[in-house]
User: Fold this.
Amino acid sequence: MPDTAEVIASADVPAEGDLLDVSETPETSDAVAGDGSTGASDTDGGTTEVPADAAVTEASDAIASPAPDGAAGDPAAAGTPTTEVTGETADVATPAASPARPTPPPVATPASDPSLWGRVDEEGTVYLRTGDGERAVGNWQAGEPAEGLAHYGRRYDDLATEVSLLEARLRAHTGNPTEIRAKAQALAETVPTADVVGDLPALASRLGTIIDAAEGAVAVSKAEKAQARAGQIAKKEALAAEAETIAADSSQWKAAGDRLKAIVEEWKTIKGIDRKTDEALWTRFAAARDAFGRRRGSHFAALDVQRTESRAAKSELIAEAEKLSTSTEWGPTSAAMRSLMDRWKAVPRTGRDTDDDLWKKFRAAQDVFFAARTESDKARNGEQKANQEQKEALLAEAEKIDPGRDPRGAQAALRKIQERYDAIGHVPREVMRSLEDRMQDVEEKVRGAADAGRPRTVAENPMLTSLRAAAEKAEQQLAKAQTAGDAKRIADAEANLASRREFLAAAEKAGSGRR
Assistant:
């Protein structure tokens, strides 16, 4: 009889959760006898399916504490109810009538056929057939040899299941190929010495295939990661380049600043770049952003200086406009106001609010002057209208002169009318030419009558012709001055015209006396 240590050591305990699947039968159940040998014991009609761990425990208990008389090796005789263990749940077995002749329980069939790959000898040693012969993988003392062989076959199936799981994960791409490869390599190292009964060369071959496929998947994964990383790097490089363009060229300060803020947020969403590269790209972007900030700061600093200078320049223009606003020199002051406006337009803006306030002051000063000029023009227009009526009355009187009866008397009467006519002030510009033309027609009629009454012995006096041309030129200068609204020029032109007409009248009188 083997000693206790041999019995315990020889019982190859299955992995956690493994059970010795023994179908329910009304036959006797296997139990470990007190001496460690395997025997059959009658029960009350049920069988107990015992896990391998339980078998080892029961064997140890039987050796350490011999059963009472009549109950050795018989759990039912000891008053312990028999149970059937199936899977992970133990249920109380249904009592059944004892058969006339006990038979051994059937053995649970593993997924593989362990009998093709191993055997159990009379001493309970379990062997695995290999290409070089046989290799002992364990010792079975807990039941029938078929059970031991089935147990080691299930251990093989468990190992095969692990291999199948690795294959499934690799096919479905649900695991890290590096981890799958490491697990397969670890299993492959244990296969040659695994204490199982089954087709180990097939498992080794499958594991080799898994390792090769996993290495390929690792390479593909690395390539995909490298490609993804390159794509992410390209995105950040594009953002950095955009920031550099903004920093170098953009003068849309608000829009450019908002875009740089948006780039920062977009930058945060780009992952999967190694730290060194990412830091280099960020340094590049940050440098561009800082350069933009410095350029923007310089721009606004210069703008502040420019606005200060513009405020000073426009304040001077306002002072000049306010000084001119009370002038009654309408012509020169109008020209000066136009010059101030041109200078104002040439000065840069000072900022919206400040510029608007300065413009209101400047415009108010100009409005004072131009409003006064408008009122003056209205008053002058009324005076000129009255002058027009007076001149029209004198022209009507001159047109009634009959030079045919008394040419000399007609000339004298016309000369008096002309003196009164010239003494009258300005008339509206639009009627000036028509009035002058009427007066000239009367002069020519009177002159023609006088010339017709005496023989022409000499040619026209050249000096008289020159004086008449000078008088016409003086009339044109007066018209231009009135058009410009320049009071000084108008006064000078009127004085010049009066002088020319006096000379012309004197020359005509002298010429008439000589004839």
Observations:
- The chain has a mean pLDDT of 76.
- The chain is about 65% helix and 5% strand.
